[in-house]
Write a structure and sequence with these properties.
Blueprint lengths: L2 H24 L7 H30 L1 H16 L4 H34 L35 H46 L7 H53 L7 H40 L8 H5 L2 H7 L6 E2 L3 E2 L2 H22 L1
Antiparallel strand pairs: 1-2
Pfam family, one: 7tm_6
InterPro entries: 7tm6_olfct_rcpt
Keywords: Cell membrane, Membrane, Olfaction, Receptor, Sensory transduction, Transducer, Transmembrane, Transmembrane helix
């Protein structure tokens, strides 16, 4: 059989099965080789999951927008309330940390956007180019297209839509996380100021008034933390599973790129994967680290109450501290879905689990 007859027969085969193939490919059921299937599966997850998480954040924040307004109002009240210089210094310190996180997030977002969108315009691809989906003019996102993207204006329109999608996704991802960090760091500063006021409670001449104000302030902080958890708990639950899956895929991809003996290691490919790994690690570390700080501040408040010179008080005044001590002994935590506490222990457990799956994938590859 000559080449012309072979290709003619192949065209007939494509014509015969194209409608069936179209339907099965829409739901991911068209049979493919193992190598192609694995590459497509990993690529689909690395593209689809981040966009799904961004959509989840956008939907939840819009849904919980009314719950965010009291958080902003309480922060404004704390800043406008009269305070001593030491308390203001604590608030400024926490706010500077939150601002630094925002700046780092914007810098990382700009670097990622430049690498994915701008560099390909100068024929400097920042990601791995494959023959499976990439054509003569590669686009920022690797996926399948049901039309010819090499022609104009299809290429320009698709490129513009993908660039806008990546930009707004990055803004949403960074801004929502930065606001959560701001709220958590603010309440950490308020807990620290509250602990300092408690340390002088026993020596106050107006003990009853000071105790009443302390109880009111403590309940206000508890409500503040409850509002934060109510607004972000569902989103945090999704992010925990997102981190476990995508970090595993990115880690596997990074090790595959580095240990691939057949191909030269491309700096752009390594940088592309490293940006994804670092972004995931930093965001998850900030979530869990902020939750750990809140737990530590609550524990510090409990210790401050236990260390009060209660024996110098009258018996009635000493007994009135009991309920405050009991409530302070139960620290409030930021959780993912009101199930998983966001602490450094949780972060380490996620890393161990992801590392185990990466090892499993590497073993299956070999």
């Amino acid at each position: 059989m000559d080449a012309s007859e072979y290709y003619s027969g192949y065209r007939d085969f494509v014509w015969a099965v194209e409608l069936n193939r179209f339907g099965l490919e829409l739901v991911g059921l068209w049979p493919k080789t193992n190598e192609v299937a694995k590459d497509n599966y990993a690529s689909d997850l690395r593209i689809t999951l981040p966009l799904m998480v961004v959509s989840l954040k956008l939907v939840i924040i819009r849904w919980k927008r009314t719950a965010l307004l009291p958080i902003v109002k309480m922060m404004a009240e704390d800043w406008m309330a009269p305070k001593v210089d030491a308390e203001r210094d604590v608030m400024v310190k926490r706010a500077r940390t939150a601002r630094l996180i925002v700046i780092c997030g914007y810098v990382l977002m700009t670097f990622s956007f430049t690498g994915v969108i701008v560099l390909p315009c100068f024929d400097l691809p920042f990601r791995r180019l494959t023959n499976l989906t990439d054509r003569d003019r590669p686009l920022p996102l690797q996926t399948y297209y049901f039309y010819d993207t090499d022609k104009s204006p299809q290429f320009e329109l698709t490129f513009l839509i993908q660039a806008a999608t990546i930009f707004f996704a990055a803004i949403t991802y960074t801004s929502v996380d930065a606001f959560l960090g701001l709220a958590i760091l603010h309440i950490c500063g308020q807990l620290e100021n509250f602990r300092r006021r408690l340390s002088s409670l026993a020596s106050r001449k107006d003990f009853d008034c000071a105790l009443r104000n302390s109880v009111i302030a403590h309940l206000r902080l508890i409500r503040f933390a409850d509002k934060i958890e109510d607004a972000f708990a569902l989103m945090m639950l999704g992010l925990v599973f997102y981190f476990a899956i995508v970090f595993c895929l990115y880690g596997f991809l990074l090790l595959s790129v580095i240990t691939d003996a057949e191909n030269d290691v491309s700096l752009s490919r390594v940088s592309y994967v490293m940006v994804g790994v670092v972004t995931l690690l930093v965001h998850t570390f900030l979530y869990c680290g902020a939750g750990e700080i809140i737990a530590e501040q609550c524990e510090a408040i409990y210790r401050a109450l236990c260390d009060l010179d209660w024996y110098k008080l009258e018996s009635r005044e000493a007994r009135s501290l009991t309920l405050l001590i009991i409530r302070a002994s139960e620290p409030f935590r930021i959780t993912a879905g009101k199930i998983i506490p966001l602490t450094m222990t949780t972060f380490c457990s996620l890393l161990k689990t992801s590392a185990g799956y990466i090892s499993f994938l590497l073993a299956k590859r070999d």
